[in-house]
Amino acid sequence: MAARQRPLGLLAASLSLGLLSACSLTPEYERPAAPVPTTFAGSVSEAAVPVLPAWSDFVADDRLRQVVTLALQNNRDLRVAMANVEQVRAQYRIQRANQAPTVNLGVTGNRQASEGGDITSTYTAGLLVSAWEIDFFGRLGSLKEAALAQYLASEESARAAQTSLVASVISTWLSLQADEELLSFTQQTQATREDSLRLTRLRFDNGAASALDLRQAESLAASARATLAQQQRQRSQDLNALALLVGQAVPASLLPSVPKEVDRSSLLRDVPEGLPSDLLERRPDIRQAEQQLLAANANIGAARAAFFPRISLTTSLGSASTELSGLFKDGSWGFTLAPQALLPIFDLGRNQAALDASKASRESAVAQYEKAIQVAFREVSDALAGRATLGEQIQAQQSLVQSESERLRLAELRYRNGVASFLEVLDAQRSLFAAQQALTQTRLARQLNQVALYKALGGGY
């Protein structure tokens, strides 16, 4: 019994030696300093920083919340991103498994002619470990760390895809809502201009209006028809874009309608103000860039380990006999142990080139990480600047609409009393329509800016 335990003891000792003696040549990782200011303009102290709400809390409208939920369930790009995560996760598991020996159950037979013309047979059966690399210098460990970092980077990429999807669905839905409002304005304007054209033509036929008045009325009516066709086309395109994001046709009950002022202000929650720049670490694209930097750093350790001996072990434990029927009988048991060490002497600079390439890859990853932070900082700063100015722009645009509405009322009054020409009325109609369109576009811009700020700060999941 003691003789049988000896091979198992040697194999266990070899396994323990390989696991305990491994070292790592990976450089110590230090996160690069963020190449941006530490705070945004007007930010509060870090102790007062609120937490960004989840997207389901950020979206206040129930219809829009259901549309986003459908998109998260059915969007094909998001499915691809999640499948990529599983693929990279499987690659990490493969790399992790390389650190452990692969044990096979093998049965072999060999017949060979001897010098005397006799045929000799040898049969073996047992457990086999072929060319297991003992990771003395951490090559496999570094490769495993790199694979783990790539797996985590893929997870962050999927989160970034989800964040982008949520923001795109919200923005497209809001654009579709603005399309509905613009269509409503245009239809009302077209009806008014068609009525004006009929009255002008009637007055022209009776000699009460000039040909210039008639042509001006015809021009405005044709302009309204052209604008209506353009906006109908834009609405159809936005609806198609929303269906593509959602991954299916959006139910009519979930589509936006012409908003009221109260509904417009309650679609989205406010994004907390005064957020410091270190909250940019919440962004999945920045975390993805950092994981890729960690992977590049680990690859340097694997490239350094290639300069040292690569030690592998081939061993077997089982039964051997000259006859097949003699396998597994007493006295037929045995083991083999065949360690091997290979030290690269001449490889025409292959290992050095691999090390240089891994170092260059790390420098590239550092630059990409820093750029991700700079891009994120700019996006947040732009969104904050938009929030600071779009509110004032909307107030000014509302005042313009009120002024143009009063101007149109006075022009119509002057025209009915014979004080002003019909051209003054038509010009007032055109100005009011343009002001209403601009107000709708500015309101949409403020909503889209709110979505952009939420996305830039790392919200969305």
Quick structural gist:
This protein is α+β, with helices and mostly antiparallel strands and 461 residues long.
Written description of the protein model:
The model is unreliable at about 1-20 and about 40-50 (pLDDT under 50). The chain has helices spanning about 1-20, 55-60, 60-75, 75-95, 140-205, 210-245, 260-265, 285-305, 350-415, 420-455; strands spanning about 105-115, 120-135, 310-320, 335-340. It has a four-stranded antiparallel β-sheet with strand order 1-2-3-4, with helices on one face. Strand 1 (about 105-115) and strand 2 form a beta hairpin. It is of the alpha+beta class and about 450 residues long. Its main location: membrane.
Features:
461 residues; alpha+beta; Outer membrane efflux proteins (OEP); 2 domains; four-stranded antiparallel sheet; 10 helices; 4 strands; disordered N terminus
Strand order of the largest sheet: 1-2-3-4
Identify low-pLDDT runs.
1-21, 42-49
Count of helix runs: 10
Main structural class: alpha+beta
What name does CATH use for the topology of the largest domain? Outer membrane efflux proteins (OEP)
Pfam families: OEP
Subcellular location: Cell membrane
Organism: Hydrogenophaga bisanensis
Signal peptide: 1-22
